[in-house]
């Protein structure tokens, strides 16, 4: 099939009419980069096999360790550029019985990673040797996967949060699209790094109960809803304990938009804006 | 001999970019642009029950280097109006200085205390004229006859009127503290607590901000400028032997002693008129 005239469902309706002139040029309409042709990158007009930019993206994922396990939180939105296109996307996934994975970034790459992890877990199960892949092993696998793709200049465009509990030990780590990986007591991806990590650094404690940890996550998710344009007020929390992984149903948080000072902000300063 | 007929156009204000092409060519040939001093910065403002609290960190950077560990980012505009500045340090200093002088002249002309909206309008018209090239992002706060006011001013000349505002590279860290802790009708102690927590979030989570916390509390009674209200980054190690440098550490290459009396003439004369 010839995709040289392919135009992604556009957000730029004024380009739809010029499609008749594009017999030779391959013309792509990107939700973030805007309309451009493929010689944009100075490479010859061969079909590009490298992921250059993400299309459908999820925003931050947060993770904290607490007394009995690990909690991951994310909203259920997937944006297409500046539109919030899908509002019921589960960006958290259980991996085996010991680990939960949360992903931000390109959703199709997250789905590909899910397929690979499902195969990995199935193969591990088929060994039937009394042992199963724990969070440390999954983290390492994902790191090798992401770094390997990065070296081929064809990254999986995600930042992954991996949390799990095995043999009473909590584990919480991150792998980014270029293969940077680390573990910590509290992690975040994307905007969460700027808005949630400061709160975690101030208020996280090792001996938090489940309720306290959920309250801390909800506080940060509310700040993200207020200040991240791609976030929506619909969240899920994954709870990983020795007993297994439980991902909650989506729910909303109580917001407050009715501060008196915001009602008529220039009341006291007539003429300003 | 041809006459060159150049139409003289009077300058209309704003920057002249005549030398931009030459500069770009020089850069291509390897000349390096000087790094300018920025205030990486976390600056915040908060309206509480009786007035306004402004806060700022104290780190100034030149590229990757901290050039001033304890600079002052809360600038005086009027006895009842102060302004925190983020962005290029020269721009914030000079714009606030200039507007402060204009406000003083305005006070003499009108015989009244300055209002915050006056300062706001002067600053924003200046910044808009320079189309964002004057890189000053400001948090302006004060109390005048109409009450307490807080404004955020952006380099291109737009403004926001808000009950709480943050600017600078540490603004997200500080805003996360404000968003999670802000309530209406805060008391003075609660306000100071939240503002210094927000600045500390910037200091510890943003690389462009650091060192100490400055606060300025303005009410209708007056202002309280708390320089270095918190110093959460003390120098924790001092060498037990001390730091003196005895003779012999620096090599002396040559010595020449000249008596000054031969070169200086002391004259008696009248004192200069002071008036």
From TrEMBL, chain A:
What residue ranges are annotated as transmembrane? none
**Annotated SUPFAM superfamilies:** N-terminal nucleophile aminohydrolases (Ntn hydrolases) (SSF56235)
Location of the protein in the cell: Cytoplasm; Nucleus
Q: Which GO terms describe its cellular component?
A: cytosol; nucleus; proteasome core complex, beta-subunit complex
Its GO biological process terms? proteasome-mediated ubiquitin-dependent protein catabolic process
Q: Where would you say this protein principally sits, based on its record?
A: cytoplasm
Keyword list, A-Z = Cytoplasm, Nucleus, Proteasome
Q: Can you tell which superkingdom this protein's organism belongs to?
A: Eukaryota
Role, per record? Non-catalytic component of the proteasome.
State the family it belongs to: Belongs to the peptidase T1B family.
**Name of the protein in question:** Proteasome subunit beta
What organism, scientifically named, is this protein from? Physcomitrium patens
Gene name per UniProt: LOC112295084
UniProtKB/TrEMBL annotation, chain B:
- Alphabetically, which GO biological process terms does the record hold? proteasome-mediated ubiquitin-dependent protein catabolic process
The record's subcellular locations are: Cytoplasm; Nucleus
Pfam families recorded = Proteasome (PF00227)
> Quick check: keyword Nucleus in the entry?
yes
Reactions it catalyzes: Cleavage of peptide bonds with very broad specificity
Q: Which UniProt keywords apply?
A: Cytoplasm, Hydrolase, Nucleus, Protease, Proteasome, Threonine protease
Q: Which InterPro entries match?
A: Ntn_hydrolases_N, Pept_T1A_subB, Proteasome_bsu_CS, Proteasome_sua/b, Proteasome_suB-type
Q: What is its main location?
A: cytoplasm
PROSITE patterns the UniProt entry points to:
PROTEASOME_BETA_1 (PS00854), PROTEASOME_BETA_2 (PS51476)
Q: Which residues form the active site?
A: 41 (nucleophile)
A molecular-function term among this protein's GO annotations: threonine-type endopeptidase activity
Coiled coil located at which positions? Answer: none
**Entry GO CC:** cytosol; nucleus; proteasome core complex, beta-subunit complex
Say what the protein does.
Component of the proteasome, a multicatalytic proteinase complex which is characterized by its ability to cleave peptides with Arg, Phe, Tyr, Leu, and Glu adjacent to the leaving group at neutral or slightly basic pH. The proteasome has an ATP-dependent proteolytic activity.
Q: How does it assemble?
A: Component of the 20S core complex of the 26S proteasome. The 26S proteasome is composed of a core protease (CP), known as the 20S proteasome, capped at one or both ends by the 19S regulatory particle (RP/PA700). The 20S proteasome core is composed of 28 subunits that are arranged in four stacked rings, resulting in a barrel-shaped structure. The two end rings are each formed by seven alpha subunits, and the two central rings are each formed by seven beta subunits. The catalytic chamber with the active sites is on the inside of the barrel.
Q: Which family does it belong to?
A: Belongs to the peptidase T1B family.
Q: What is this protein called?
A: Proteasome subunit beta
- Give the species: Physcomitrium patens (Spreading-leaved earth moss)
């Amino acid at each position: 099939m010839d995709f040289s005239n392919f135009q992604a469902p556009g957000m730029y309706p004024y380009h739809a009419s010029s499609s008749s002139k594009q017999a030779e040029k391959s013309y792509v309409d990107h939700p973030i980069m805007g309309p451009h042709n493929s010689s944009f990158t100075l490479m010859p007009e061969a079909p590009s096999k490298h992921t250059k930019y993400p299309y459908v993206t999820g925003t931050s994922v947060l993770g904290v360790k607490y007394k009995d396990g690990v909690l991951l939180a994310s909203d259920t939105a997937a944006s297409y550029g500046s539109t919030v296109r899908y509002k019921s996307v589960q960006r958290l996934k259980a991996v085996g019985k010991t680990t939960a994975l949360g992903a931000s970034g390109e959703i199709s790459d997250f789905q590909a990673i899910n397929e690979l992890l499902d195969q990995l877990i199935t193969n591990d199960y088929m060994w039937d040797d009394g042992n199963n892949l724990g969070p440390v092993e999954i983290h390492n696998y994902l790191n090798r996967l992401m770094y390997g793709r990065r070296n081929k200049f064809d990254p999986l465009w995600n930042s992954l949060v991996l949390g799990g509990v095995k043999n009473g030990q909590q584990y919480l780590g991150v792998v980014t699209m270029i293969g940077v990986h680390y573990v910590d007591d509290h992690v975040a991806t994307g905007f969460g790094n700027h808005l949630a990590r400061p709160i975690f650094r101030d208020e996280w404690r090792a001996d938090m109960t489940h309720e306290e940890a959920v309250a801390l996550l909800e506080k940060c998710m509310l700040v993200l809803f207020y200040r991240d344009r791609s976030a929506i007020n619909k969240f899920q929390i994954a709870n990983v304990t020795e007993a297994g992984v439980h991902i909650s149903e989506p729910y909303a948080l109580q917001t407050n938009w009715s501060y008196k000072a915001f009602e008529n902000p220039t009341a006291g300063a007539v003429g300003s804006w | 001999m041809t006459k060159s007929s150049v139409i003289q156009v009077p300058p209309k204000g704003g920057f002249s970019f005549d030398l931009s092409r030459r500069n770009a060519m020089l850069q291509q040939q390897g000349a390096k642009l000087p790094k300018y001093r920025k205030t990486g910065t976390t600056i915040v403002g908060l309206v509480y029950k009786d007035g306004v609290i402004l806060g700022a960190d104290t780190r100034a950077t030149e590229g990757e280097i901290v050039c001033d560990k304890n600079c002052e980012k809360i600038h005086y505009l009027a006895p009842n109006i102060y302004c925190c500045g983020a962005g290029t340090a020269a721009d914030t200093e000079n714009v606030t200085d200039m507007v402060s002088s204009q406000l003083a002249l305005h006070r003499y002309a009108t015989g009244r205390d300055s209002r915050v909206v006056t300062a706001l309008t002067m600053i924003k018209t200046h910044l808009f004229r320079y189309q964002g090239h004057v890189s000053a992002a400001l948090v302006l706060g004060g109390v005048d006859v109409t009450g307490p006011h807080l404004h955020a001013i952006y380099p291109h000349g737009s403004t926001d009127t808000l009950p709480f505002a943050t600017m600078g590279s540490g603004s997200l860290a500080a805003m996360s503290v404000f968003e999670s802790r802000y309530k209406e009708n805060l008391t003075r102690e609660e306000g100071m607590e939240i503002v210094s927590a927000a600045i500390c979030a910037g200091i510890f989570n943003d690389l462009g901000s650091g060192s100490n916390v400055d606060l300025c509390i303005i009410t209708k009674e007056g202002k309280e400028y708390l320089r270095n209200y918190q110093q959460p980054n003390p120098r924790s190690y001092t060498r037990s032997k001390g730091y003196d440098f005895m003779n012999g550490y620096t090599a002396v290459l040559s010595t020449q002693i000249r008596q000054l009396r031969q070169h200086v003439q002391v004259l008696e004369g009248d004192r200069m008129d002071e008036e």
